[in-house]
Design a protein that fits this description.
The chain is of the alpha/beta class and about 220 residues long. The chain has a domain of about 150 residues: 3-Layer(aba) Sandwich (Rossmann fold). The chain has 7 helices and 8 strands. The strands form 2 sheets. The protein has a 5-stranded parallel sheet with strand order 3-7-6-4-5. Strands 2-1-8 form a 3-stranded antiparallel sheet.
């Protein structure tokens, strides 16, 4: 996993989770593997355990699901047909009741370029060269993919309205090289919190960074 993906995932998790649930983060801070910094006036956690450079993660939000699915389809077609990425090196990781819209809107678009979209859960991810697997964070935990696409990120919410920040973190950290996140800009309070958090973290990450570690003087 490249450091841009790792940093985005860590900072999104930090903003979405309650402080009492951040034991793993506290341990990484104590070990010096995470460092609290100020990045262009915003609190930011810098990752020190990854040394791999790669493209910055992307996040696109839309007013409706049809626009979102069309954008995802266009992106996947570009990755496969223009960038030459094998479908087997791409994984879609979704949460909640999303399978229906992926089957109705995304699968037919991929079929036009000869790519199948099977849905797999709780089994080994063996596939044919023309398959692009869709699965859940729980099922894909322990696996990685060169490219991870997270559709309908606003669905990373429990039935009682709680943000599923750990599931989202798992999904984000399955990507080795490229992470693309999609969702709606409206919805429940929890969905709007996810949108606002991702938007803020992506904006911080994409700004040319002036980074200062906490406790470090401006002249040092």
């Amino acid at each position: 996993m490249d450091d841009e993906i790792a940093e985005l995932a860590v900072n999104v998790l930090s903003r979405l989770s309650e402080s009492r649930k951040r034991q793993d983060q506290r341990e990484l801070l104590q070990l010096g593997l995470l460092v609290k910094t100020d990045r262009n006036g915003e609190d930011w956690l810098r990752v020190r355990y990854n040394q791999i450079d790669g493209p910055k993660p992307i996040y696109h939000r839309f007013d409706n699901r049809r626009q979102e699915m069309a954008s995802i389809a266009g992106h996947l077609k570009h990755l496969i047909q223009i960038d030459g990425i094998w479908p087997t090196d791409i994984c879609i990781i979704y949460n909640g009741r999303v399978q229906d819209v992926l089957q109705s809107d995304l699968a037919p678009a991929l079929a036009t370029i000869g790519v199948e979209l099977p849905f797999q859960k709780n089994r080994s991810f063996e596939r044919q060269p023309n398959t692009l697997v869709a699965t859940t964070p729980h099922s894909f935990k322990g696996y990685e993919s060169e490219v991870v696409v997270i559709p309908c990120v606003d669905h990373y919410v429990a039935p009682e309205g709680k943000v599923l920040e750990n599931g989202l973190y798992v999904a984000m950290t399955r990507a080795r090289s490229l992470l693309a996140i999609y969702g709606l800009r409206h919805g429940s309070k929890a969905s709007r919190k996810i949108d606002a958090t991702l938007g803020a973290c992506i904006a911080i990450q994409n700004n040319h960074p002036i980074v200062q570690e906490m406790g470090e003087s401006a002249e040092s």
